[in-house]
Amino acid sequence: MTVGETIQRLRAERRLSQEQLAQEVGVSRQAVSKWELDDALPDTDKLVPLARALGVSVDELLGNAAAPPAGGGAPPGLNNGKSGPSWLATHWYWLGLIPVVWGVWMLIRLLVMLLFVAA
Fold first, then answer.
1. What is the pTM of this model?
2. Which pairs count as long-range contacts for 32-40, CB under 8 Å and 24+ apart, including other chains?
């Protein structure tokens, strides 16, 4: 379910018009219409007022509080039901430094070679 569909469903459940919801959130009716049609997403500063007006958390509004995927699998980077994220999910930053360090090492070697050639 998209964010727009979620906003439309929650608004209908609370029997609010687009105009009423727009007034509570502090936007135009056209903005609410665009959200519901998935032509635009709410600005981040509007998410909390929107969630409050619809009586849900921001996570639920964005679809993050929904049930796990139908396949039963965990999102990428997680250990399929084991506690905590996988090793790769927690160490990706450090793994990314390997090519950086290698590049710096090669640059230093090049500079040293150039110094000896120039001397």
1. 0.54
2. 32/7, 35/3, 35/4, 35/7, 36/4, 36/5, 36/7, 36/8, 36/11, 37/4, 38/2, 38/3, 38/4, 38/5
